[in-house]
Structure formats: C-alpha cells, structure tokens
User: Fold this.
Amino acid sequence: MEPAGPEVAAYIGRWRPSSVSPPAAAFARDVIGQVDPGGRERAKNLLWAAGKLADYAIGLGLDLEPGTVLHPSVAERFTRCAPGLSGPARRTLRTNLRFIGRRAVPQLYPAGLPLPRERSKQPYSAAEVSGYLARADAQPTAERRMRAAGLICLGAGAGLIRGDLRDARGTDVACRSGGVVVTVRGSRPRLVPVLARYHAPLLAAARFAGSGLVCGGAEPGRRNLTNPLVAALDGGGGLPRLDTSRLRATWLADCGELLGLATFMRAAGISCSQRLGDLVAGLEPGSEADAIRLLGAARR
Assistant:
C-alpha cells in the first residue's frame, strides 16, 4: 500500500461524517489513509464506501479488522443488501470496495484471469458460397445434389444450425407473404425468412424431400447427419472445408448488412450485444410480411 499525498492525507484525517458511526469512520480513515486514492474526490468516495461497509460489519458483530471487514464475501453481501441504492450506485460501491480490498488486503483478492471468449465465426464470401452451390450441383446423384444444396441454403440462407438444421423437412419450407420462409420446430420454434438468392435451390431441395428431411436421413437425432454432405463438398477449388457455423455467420452478416446494423450501432455508440438484447427485450417483432421485407426474403 502507498500512503496518500499530504493534502489528501489531511482531508482523510479530518473526515468525520454524520452518515457513519465514529468507529466506522475511524476504520475508514485508517484504511484509506494507507491507500493512494489519487485525489480528494476519489478519497471522499472511498471513505464513504469503507465507512458504510464498516457500519454494516458492526451490525453483524464483526471485528473492525481489514481482513474481516474487507473480505470479499462481506463486501459482496453488503453491496447486494445495502438499502436505498440505485443499480448504478450499487455497481460503483462494489467497484470502490474491490479497489480498497485489492490494496488493503491483497491476499484476499487474487488477480483475476481473463476468461476465454469465443469469437464469431468468419462469414463466407459470396464467391465461396457460390462455389459450394456449384460443388453441390456437381454431385453424382440427384439425391446428393438436393441434400447438399438444401444444407447450404438452410445454413447461409436461413441461419439454421445443429438440431434446427437436422430437423428441417421439405414441408417446413413454404412460399408465404410474398417470400420464402422456413418453419423451425426445435427448442426455439420460429419462422425464418430465407434470403432471396437461395430461394430457387432451396425450393427445389424442399420439393425433392417432400415430408422427409431436407438434409437426408430418417432420424434427425443422429448427430452426424450432415457429415456425409460436408465431406462430399470438401476438397478442391480453393474452398475451405464447409462449416455449418460459418454458414450461420454468413446469414447473420448478410441480415445485419440489410438492416444497416453496423450503421445503427456506430451512430448509437453501442459495441456490446448485451445492450442490444436489453433494448430489443422491450420491443415487439414485426409481422411475417415485415420480416420478409426487412430480411431480403421477398420473391423476385
């Protein structure tokens, strides 16, 4: 711990607010006096946080020792239970208490390790998708051609993946509301508009499948259902191995471009998708016709 500068130290020594008890104020002065707050206003905020926490500890019958009062479990419980605080004030209080704890009792606050974050898959380029469709069209049998084309169109044209992709049947693809849609019946049932460039090959694959599975097989629960199709489309032409996650990323990127998502996020100063989720939670989605128009699914 580094001692505060002379001016800040003098302010800390005079700090005796009416909002905390004298023992709690004495504890706060002692702890913050050994921490470098960086300025008087910062010292004031840290003193208030430490004093309030000390009063809370006194009410629990705890000893006013830094290792006890500033223990992460005590500070976290106080942060969650402190009455009369708004959400932002509660988060600021937690940040200040962690700042104090890391300097006053560092043995109780080991340095946090960054958690790995899975990045979004790289979308395929339009030329790569065209290459996969051409490779699907070159398969030796009509059955393999239709299933391979259906896999590509459901992935890059409707963003289907995993169980939703394996469960898709020919009867789930329909021409409605001026466009082409896929009815998803999995754990997240929904109606997905299909991007216009994939209409013709997907409709042909759906007609071929009828009431059967577009990607083939008799049991959608088979985990390796799409593996033979991926293997058949692999090799040659300078194309990377087909990845259904990248097909979905391609659909997401194409829809984001149609919606002007990047332009909106830049104008709003938003970089975190969590904020978008919070905003959208209070909005009602448009109608089926609106979705078809906005997501480029209108039939040409």
Q: What stands out?
A: Residues 40-59 form the longest helix (20 residues). The radius of gyration is 30 Å.
